[in-house]
Design goal:
- The protein has one domain.
- The protein is mainly alpha-helical.
- The C terminus is likely disordered.
- It is globular and about 80 Å long.
- Helix 5 crosses helix 17 and helix 11 crosses helix 13.
Length: about 425
């Protein structure tokens, strides 16, 4: 008897999920490219600001993309978690299902660590793998109970936001009190409070000074990665992203159980819900990133405003998922837009491939174009990389069923399980 455990067949894939992954992998390049191009990509005034248009480009990029495609990936990871274990369960292999899943997460962790240390220290894969293991206790929990778990996790983040804002209020009060004192009468502590506050919350001018390439050679790049990546110190995930990641993954599990990725019409008011979530997400993100881009020198000291800004990326990422899922199923299913789905089918390979291309463009061991482009000019590079990725993916999938890293991941995951067992 053949008791082999085989990977999921190609026909079992859900088309809308491949399409959504494809959109996410292409969209995430808007933000990832900045980490290769600039020393401080998150700055609202340093690097890449050569003209007024660069500020507007930064606003639109951050308003529409920063963290949103990451949130889409995280949500789809939660969807994939349920699908993977459900399909293993239907193969009636008992505890082997857990062995296969944990091995899958182990190899994702290893891929992420290799990516982080040897290619780009901004890797997110090893963080995903740890979150994937943390999802296991929630697999059999009903959706209404998952909603309660999401509420609890969100409460922790809101409390943290409250504490941070309250602390900022206190610091501002101390600053204003120190400012009321005549200059000659200020003590050292009061002078320090004024200096620190004004250094952080003062409107700054663009910095056009020359910046040395932080990775002039591949060896220097390895040393930089070793300094930045902390896996060897026992930090296996990003602390600041753990709760948001789990919240969105659990939400993905709930949405998959609802059936909307197979047939969006199972929700009677699907379009009303989707449009509402999208509008709310766009509104929150507009104000959040308008402040971040043009008014970063103004401190956020209003508690309710800080609450509103706690989940901007997640809210708009969810809006994108719902709208694009419905649009794909209604208008594009089986159409020529399938090239985007091909990108989604090879998401892991394309994610790593993006890092390889960006490293060659910006780091010293390649063309060394670090800090050589304005924010507006980066857009043309994004489009060029899209063209390269789409072309290579299209050619590759003409001759292969899956991407090279997807093939390797499956091979390593199912390795010993695809051998014939003793009878």
């Amino acid at each position: 008897m053949d008791n082999r455990v085989k990977p999921t067949a190609e026909l079992e894939r859900i088309p809308s999920l491949d399409f959504l992954r494809g959109v996410a992998i292409l969209g995430i390049l808007f933000i990832n490219i900045e980490s290769f191009a600039y020393s401080n990509p998150w700055s609202s005034w340093q690097f890449g600001f050569e003209d007024k248009i660069d500020y507007h480009v930064r606003f639109w990029i951050y308003f529409l993309t920063q963290g949103k495609f990451y949130s889409m990936f995280v949500l789809l990871f939660g969807v994939g978690f349920v699908i993977f274990l459900d399909r293993l369960e239907h193969k009636n292999i008992g505890l082997k299902a857990m062995d296969i899943y944990t091995r899958r997460m182990l190899w994702l962790f290893i891929f992420g660590v290799i990516h982080a240390y040897f290619i780009w220290d901004g890797d997110i894969l090893y963080h995903y793998s740890i979150c994937g293991l943390l999802l296991l206790p929630f697999r059999s929990i009903k959706s209404n109970h998952l909603a309660l778990v999401i509420f609890v996790l969100a409460s922790f983040l809101l409390v943290k936001q409250y504490e941070t804002t309250a602390k900022r209020q206190g610091t501002e009060k101390e600053y204003l009190q120190a400012l009321d004192i005549d200059g000659p009468q200020r003590n050292e502590d009061q002078i320090k409070r004024i200096t620190t506050w004004e250094k952080r919350y003062s409107k700054k001018l663009p910095d056009s000074s020359e910046v040395k390439n932080p990775r002039p050679s591949y060896w220097d790049g390895l040393k930089k990665s070793y300094e930045h990546v902390t896996v060897h110190k026992g930090a296996f995930y990003y602390k600041s992203l753990l709760f948001p990641s789990l919240i969105v993954m659990l939400l993905g599990m709930m949405l998959y159980r609802a059936g909307i990725f197979v047939d969006y019409t199972v929700w009677k008011n699907y379009w009303l819900i989707s449009v509402s979530v999208l509008i709310i997400g766009l509104t929150i993100n507009y104000f959040r990133f308008y402040h971040w881009t043009y008014e970063d020198h103004k401190p956020i000291t209003n508690i309710w405003q800080s609450f509103l800004y706690t989940f901007p990326k997640e809210s708009l990422g969810l809006g994108y998922i719902l709208m694009l899922n419905g649009i794909y199923q209604k208008f594009f299913k089986g159409s020529k837009i399938g090239i985007i789905s091909k990108i989604g089918r090879t998401a892991l390979s394309n994610y790593i491939f993006q890092s390889l291309i960006l490293g060659l463009i910006f780091y010293g061991y390649g063309f060394g174009m670090f800090n050589s482009f304005s924010r507006f000019e980066l857009l043309s590079i994004v489009v060029c990389i899209w063209f390269i990725q789409i072309s290579i993916t299209w050619i590759w999938l003409k001759y292969h069923a899956q991407g090279p890293l997807e093939w390797l991941w499956r091979k390593l995951t199912y390795g010993s399980f695809t051998e014939k067992n003793d009878r």
